[in-house]
Write a structure and sequence with these properties.
Elements (H helix, E strand, L loop, with lengths): L11 H12 L3 H9 L7 H18 L5 H13 L3 H8 L7 H7 L3 H14 L4 H9 L10 H17 L6 H4 L8 H14 L2 H5 L1 H9 L4 H32 L5
């Protein structure tokens, strides 16, 4: 049943067959199925086949063997199906991080790849930074899918906590041609930027606001308010510092 393709695209019976094989520990059969993948022209049938492949990839990972990891890494590199990514991610191997970074391009795999990369925590920081900075061979014609990959990588990097040592490289993204990436970089600036960086934030945010959508405008207003608060704190600290350094009269 597992190997019998279903033209209607309905995967449920075949997924149950894969689950039964996993319960019987017939992982060699699941692996054989994963290796038997053939191109399918019909989109409905292909969707059903990928659902079954995804389930098989997740289930075969119950066998914690190197050859299973290698199989899933190869499959994920070709087509990052959610279940295959989940199975590969369960091995938690550092060398698989680039596979999950590349999977950020795919809309249907992005949330799964993001969740797995969060699990790596600080270990994934360098790869996320490289992905956020990579504009491709021709930045002027960067594809939307590649932009989504960079946005996701930068957002994850900020979520895990941007080390101050990374800021000199992230600073350039304030002027990125993509508004969402530029806004993320501006947000990072509030935590890691220098005083010089902070002075240019209001002008850059106002520039972004001119062409921003309603959702981004809300974020920009929030960042502008935080900039104003930081500037006020900085101004208030100057008199206190001067007062503290004044000589005490006897």
């Amino acid at each position: 049943m597992l190997f019998e393709r279903e033209p209607s695209g309905l995967p449920h019976a075949r997924v149950r067959a894969a689950e039964a094989l996993a319960a019987l520990k017939a992982f060699d059969v699941l692996a054989e199925f994963l290796l038997s993948r053939q191109p399918i022209s019909d989109p409905v049938e292909r969707l059903g086949e990928e659902t079954v492949m995804s389930a098989a990839g997740r289930l075969v990972a119950r066998l914690r063997k190197d050859w299973v990891y290698d199989l899933l890494a190869d499959l994920a590199g070709q087509r990052p199906l959610r279940g295959v990514l989940m199975g590969l991610g369960s091995f938690f191997r550092k060398e698989s991080i680039p596979i999950f970074i590349n999977a950020l391009i795919e809309d249907e795999a992005r949330l799964t790849a993001e969740a797995i990369l969060r699990g790596f925590g600080n270990v994934a920081r360098k790869a996320l930074l490289a992905a956020a900075l990579d504009e491709g061979d021709n930045p002027r014609s960067e594809s939307e899918s590649h932009l989504r990959k960079r946005r996701s990588a930068l957002a994850l990097l900020l979520e895990t906590g941007l080390p101050r040592g990374y800021w000199p490289r992230v600073r350039s993204l304030i002027d990125d041609h993509d508004h969402q990436i530029a806004l993320l970089a501006c947000r990072a600036c509030l935590n890691c930027g220098t005083a010089t960086d902070m002075t240019r934030m209001p002008a850059r945010l106002s520039e972004l606001q001119l062409t921003a959508g309603w959702f981004d405008r809300g974020h920009i207003q929030e960042l502008l308010s935080r900039c104003s608060a930081c500037a006020q704190i900085s101004r208030d600290s100057v008199p206190r510092a001067r007062q503290g350094s004044s000589p005490v009269n006897a």
